[in-house]
Design brief:
The chain is α/β, with parallel strands linked by helices and 475 residues long. 46% of the residues lie in helices and 14% in strands. Helix 2 crosses helix 9, helix 4 packs parallel to helix 5 and helix 12 packs across helix 17.
Amino acid sequence: MAYLKTVLLSQSEEDLIHDQSVECLRDVGVRVDSDSVLDLLAEKGASVDTKTQIAKIPEKMINEALKAAPKQITLYGRDPKNNLELPVEAYPYSVTNGTSVFVRDKDTNEYRDSTSQDVADIAKLVDGLDGIDFQWPSLSAKDMPPHAQTLYELWITLENSSKHFQGDAIHGAHNAQAQIDMAALVVGGREELKKRPIISMIVCPLAPLYFEKGAIESQVAFARAGIPVVSYSMSIGGLSSPITVAGMMLNANAENLASLVITQAAAPGAPHIYGSDSTPMDMATGNINYDAAELGLVACGLSQMSKRYKLPSFNGGFNGFSVVGDYNETIFEMLSGCIASICHTDITGGLGCIDDAKGICFKQMLVDAYTWECCREYMKPIEITKERLGLDAIKNVGPKGNFLVEPHTLRYLRNEPIMWDEEKFALLTKDKDALLQAAGKIVNSILDEHEVVPVDEAILKQGYDIIHAYETKYA
């Protein structure tokens, strides 16, 4: 099979990034604000300075972690039809953006704080969209107590979607254990959850080379429970990493290797996904620059590095044309996202986000899902065989002939040409006002009519009991 893939790095350049990453972790190390994780690393062979909380990681530990990490992972859905096998062969799986704090109201278009009802509505919308494969909870439940928001986001999303859930590990081992207990309720216990993890967790190192206490202790807890962990480096060029494309790749690669070492030290063989959402800082505003061409280039290079290590990967993001801003403002952002998506990654994310990922728009989610369905057709597998090449047909037709009634044409007419869904393509080609109006109607139609595979009412109650007990204990 032939697949459309972009390649950025030569073999020697891959080697250089790897060698420099090993040197960085050996000589500079990483800061880990957790005594228990530092003790774990020291036990496995790292050189730990408890005063500075710096762990220097030798090459041997990196090699052992790479050897122990599984090369194939399944992200299970609550409904088995939504199971996702990693790595992919052709186009990557798509996922929403995660835990934004603002939402553009689906009816009034008001830009406001997100609520638990918005979390439920987005989860149901995504469950009904073929163009999105699984769910990072797109919005924060800001109407719930801050220390329990991750639990509400997990439970509300699982109730309103049967697709795989990918959450955030930030609040420490006690929060992680509550999330594990809740997911275990759905599948029938912790041992069954280890066999069929319907959730995975994103853990962001704080660039450069820093693992915060709550997040890294959560990572250890999830790894030991068999929950796939995504090390999601956000190396911001010129701010939290070198400004060069090469420097961003080095910092992100080193953080990924360090995170992998921690996962495998905690639980050898635990599933781990290599990830990055790295891009330069906008030097004029200080904001993260998702319009930067470097976003796609860094994603390309890091996806190659993940394949070098035979690790499943989540690199870069995909965004469609903005439905709330100026189309022209997002042309280059979309181009960069496309480049990031046709590299070697297994997952591309960011669908539905607006305002540099601080907000989510229901109509944008729909447009991004439809756009992705069109774009991924460019990455479908192409058979290159003697039969498909059609030399016999060319001989039969000869010079100056045509292939309209040639048997070869009739044989492949219905399954070879790229055929986009006519209704979805028609929506995407409307002018902006008409697109917004039509998208709003479709969003509300899905929310009204789509049926989600239900969770047993008794299990739902047990999940909320866990949340309420957690709220009381840790308030």
